[in-house]
Amino acid sequence: MEIWINPACSKCRSALTLLDAEGADYTVRRYLDDVPAEDEIRAVLDRLGLEPWDITRTQEQAAKDLDLKDAEAWPRDASGRDRWIKALSDHPELIQRPIITADDGTAVVGRTEEAVRDALSR
Fold first, then answer.
1. pTM of the predicted model, to two decimals?
2. Is 47 buried (19+), middle (13-18) or exposed (0-12) by CB count in 10 A?
3. C-alpha to C-alpha distance for 91 and 85, rounded to whole angstroms
4. How far apart are CA 66 and CA 98, in angstroms?
5. What is the DSSP letter of 60?
6. What is the pLDDT of residues 30-74, one digit of tens each?
7. Which InterPro entries would you find in this protein's record (predicted)?
8. Contacts (Cβ under 8 Å, ≥6 apart) of 39
9. Taking every pair of C-alpha atoms in the chain, what is the biggest distance, in angstroms?
10. Cα separation of 66 and 73, whole Å?
11. Lower CB density within 10 Å: C or N end of the chain?
12. How many CB atoms lie within 10 A of CB 82?
């Protein structure tokens, strides 16, 4: 299992605390320092069963600078998917956190205790 974290994020710290309490075997990826490539983001999206706009932190300054809320410039469909993925790779602070890749090949966005426990059960 791998967990993508920002150490400054309280949700990430909570997830790590729970993983440690449960004795989970995991690897930490500080995705702001070890930025995922576009192919890695695609793979995680497939594991999550989500689209890039589903894991984008639209309140971040980078999202505002890119004007991600402009639906015409940033369509949320197949035509805009690659552009969204590139934005996430170019601006990793936009990636929702923490993301936990489970041992069964799936992944979850571990923002709640229930989501972290779900990843542990897989």
1. 0.93
2. middle
3. 10
4. 23
5. S
6. 999 999 999 999 999 999 999 999 999 999 999 999 999 999 999
7. Arsenate_reductase-like (IPR006660), Thioredoxin-like_sf (IPR036249)
8. none
9. 46
10. 10
11. C
12. 12
